[in-house]
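Lab manual, section 2.4: Encoding a predicted structure.

Procedure: take the sequence of the chain (216 residues), apply the prediction step described in section 2.3, and record the output as structure tokens. A sample record is shown.
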Amino acid sequence: MPSNQSVVDGQTVRSCVFGPITVDFDDRVLTPRAWTLGQSTWAAELARDRGTAGCMLELCAGAGHIGLAAAVLADWDLVQVELDPVAAAYAAANARRAGWGERVRVRNVSLREALEPGERFALIVADPPYLASAATARWPEDPLLAIDGGPDGLTVVRDCLQIAAQHLDEAGTMVLQVAGPAQVEAMAEALGATGLRAVEQRVTDPERAVVRIERA
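Recorded output:
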């Protein structure tokens, strides 16, 4: 993805156009991938299909580009959850740059601490780390926190599914990025345990897909 760059406080800050927004980031956070804009546009389509404005939740937000682009396209408010403080700071700054600063709340906490029991969302967007730990060496330039999904790649995916089961409203939808169709199949047990089901997937290649999840 083409980008411009500048040096700020000793860090080389790059910026790129990502759909309706411009995103700043540096090497300490995961570089935006052009193909992930498809997740944003799909989420925005689903949000608009609701017919009324609302608030979406983004888990594992990184620099915030996927959820922010979806929120801007749909004209929805947004809550973003990101554990890494550097990425969370970029998410907040990118929201302000897009003119969405008053409509985005960034929570720099772990997934399990992020939400109150009664919070409900019509739409949840998630791009969790989904690589098996043994496979992360293929991507040496990526921050480990952003890509390491544990021994089977599903550790954080399972956490995201648990949150969706607890915090989606009754007609809610989750749009989850995963490591291709094979990982969708591997999620079957976790989906069943949380009372969710995969209803559709959009595949970029064997290692990249986005799956739409609803209540079973």
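Check your result against the sample. The mean pLDDT is 95.
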